[in-house]
Structure to design on (110 residues):
């Protein structure tokens, strides 16, 4: 199974943390740690079999990046309920994420 990750090998590789940093959605280490650990918890409790059955590392990476994005933006995500709704920390770069996703154009949906 060298051509794909297990949850444990993903954790020991540190790749998830690097991907989250490169996305640029967190500026503080504690936000990064919280988000990373919450993703691992979700994988271990709900999605281990699904994740480990994805055929390649590139597809697993895409799956994880979608999971990260959903956790950052969804008000129904475990990450939102544990951290974002209470803290609304200035350390999270929400405006930058919104601008990147909307091509630099603000799009009011509410």
């Amino acid at each position: 199974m060298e051509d794909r990750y297990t949850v444990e090998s993903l954790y020991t590789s540190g790749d998830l943390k690097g991907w989250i940093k490169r996305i640029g959605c967190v500026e503080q280490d504690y936000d990064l740690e919280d988000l990373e650990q919450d993703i691992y918890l979700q994988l271990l409790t709900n999605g281990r079999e699904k994740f480990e059955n994805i055929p390649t590392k590139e597809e697993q990476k895409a799956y994880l990046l979608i999971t990260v994005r959903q956790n950052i933006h969804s008000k129904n995500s475990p990450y939102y309920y544990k951290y974002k709704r209470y803290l609304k920390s200035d350390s999270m770069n929400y405006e930058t994420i919104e601008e990147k996703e909307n091509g630099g154009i603000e799009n009011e949906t509410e």
